[in-house]
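User: Can you help me understand a structure? I only have the sequence.
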Amino acid sequence: MGKEKSTHDSPREGEWWQRIRNRVIGEGGELQSVLSRGAGSAFLLKVIGAGLAFGVQVLLARLMGVTDYGIYIYAYTWAKMLVLVGRMGADKGLIRFMPEYRSHEQWGRFRGALRFGIRTVLISCTGLALIGASVVWLLYDSMPASQPETLYWALAMLPILGLIQLWKGALQAFKRITQALSPELLVKHLAVGGGSLLLYTVMGGTLTAPYAMGATFAAVLVTFGAGGVFLWRALPAEMWKVESRETPKYWLRAMLPMMVIAGANITMKRADLIMVGALLGPDKAGVYGAVLRISELAHFGLQSIDSIAAPLIAELYHSGRHGELQYLTTWAARGAFTVAIAITGGLFLLGPFVLGLFGAEFVSGYISLLILLVGQLLNSFAGVVGFVMMMTGHQYKSMRILIFAAAANILLNAILIPVFGLVGGAVATSLTLLFWNVWMVLYVREKLDIITTAI
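Assistant: Let's start by predicting it. Here is the structure, written out as tokens:
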């Protein structure tokens, strides 16, 4: 007879799967019930949102052409980067604190956290917008035509974009997953596409970057309103019956690492595009913006799994179920890596065709696309290592790794882009992804005895 497999260190795979399944489909407890209701809808919304986002970018590129599209995507990327700093981690702070205050019926602190978040975002984002507008005014004469106006529109959006993220964080804290995601993933993309088409028609078959950013500004206002209505309906009546109680120093200490991690992440994802636009001009920025948008399709599997796996990682770790945590991280990495391989294979064959959807000028980015896809494959192979560090109390180490990686990314872009153009930016980003993922995987293996990779 064969030797029976030991189950001392971890449960048999069938037993493990039943336990994970129970958490996902909802047996016994609020977390399981929330995952049952939210995981499927969140995944579906992300699929639809990714498709809409890609379609809208193709539409804008076709309506504007490579130069105006480059100016548009360059300005909007600056807005996305600045708003991450401007929101000061307040959205993540609400996700962390509001469920605790609600469960303990601390309605004064509950109301205070929301008011503090709104005030922090408005002050910070407005200040950054004014500073940015001053810089644009000083450099006005040295910028390409229509770029200053486009940047002014983008900077004006900062406070609204920050509040949209705050609404999203508060709704996630209330476990209203569909309402948290749908304004940004559905409403905004549909409004941008519809508004741009309307302007293109009214203007007689032309659409410039400033007008496209104006349409985006209007879409952001609609998104802000939709999220605000959802949040208003979700707020408990009890919070209006008490005075606001605030602990700003405590909240800021908790929000700081979240803000830095988010800022370092977006720097690694968008520093290459910013530097391509600054060093090579709007035409190249337009091509590289399309390349980035397409390459991120390979990252979709990991993004979708992250939102489902994160709460399970925290629960399994803090309840001491090491074996189940290892199975979960392996399963997540294999799922993300499988999706990345499938998408990368398709884009390897169809990359020129997909780039051609944006316009004939964009096909020149094919080699850069392949390099970025290699980086996304490596990122997916490493699995949910970032969330493992965040959910197990190693967020400060994660923050230091990401700061170092972001600095390395900027330095590599500064060296490689002037010499190799778009290919240099793609190489810098892919090398940085490899660097920080290897560092985090080795750290998690040493400190937690968990292997997060697909193998």
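Now, to help you interpret it: The two ends are 30 Å apart (CA to CA). DSSP finds 17 helices and no strands in the chain. Let me know which part you'd like to focus on.
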